[in-house]
Amino acid sequence: MIRTVVFDVGETLIDETRIWSRWADRLGVTRFTMLGVLGGMAALDRSFTEAFQLVRPGFDVEAEQEAWERDDPGGLRVNFDADDLYPDVRSGLAALRALGYELIIAGNQPPQAYDALAAMDLPVDAIHTSDGWGVAKPDPAFFGKVVAVSGREPGEILYVGDRLDNDVRPARAAGMRTALIRRGPWGYLHAARPEAAAEADHVVGGFADLVAALSAHPPR
Description:
- This protein is α/β, with parallel strands linked by helices and about 220 residues long.
- It has a six-stranded parallel beta sheet, with helices on both faces.
- Helix 9 links the parallel strand 4 and strand 5.
- The N and C termini lie close together (about 10 Å).
């Protein structure tokens, strides 16, 4: 029986459209171009960081972020806030909590993401980031941390994310149940792959589908 549901952040809880649009503006390319190149990286199973190199060869992401912070102190830049939550997240989390599930957020995120998520006052039991843990997905150690903080057996945990490679496969290898959410470029592309239905316990279009799937056998 699933007792704990753990959520990825980007394109699971957070719509990253504004973040990537700000990057496009910063780099001086159209937003359509930036988002299209990202989609290409997703389709080719390449890292989103390679999109920067296509748009601007030799680009140094870290140096640009530091310059951007100097240019726009206090701005959102590559960060997010409550306005970036997908509209079904808050109500979906509340519904899952009402069913008796323990809810945890754990994703690949930089230091500032923890405070941003905490400020949203989401109905979850804990928030963790890769930066806080010092290990990132798809490293098996990340999923070991998930098991440890939940206090559950791996088979009692459902990990929800938008990618087969970063979320479903490593979580499944750790013994967890998995849900692939059809959001963002990776989510749509990965959900359409023939292996998605075989590798993920659930392929869902959003939180309504997830709540419906988990309503059949709630922990209480």
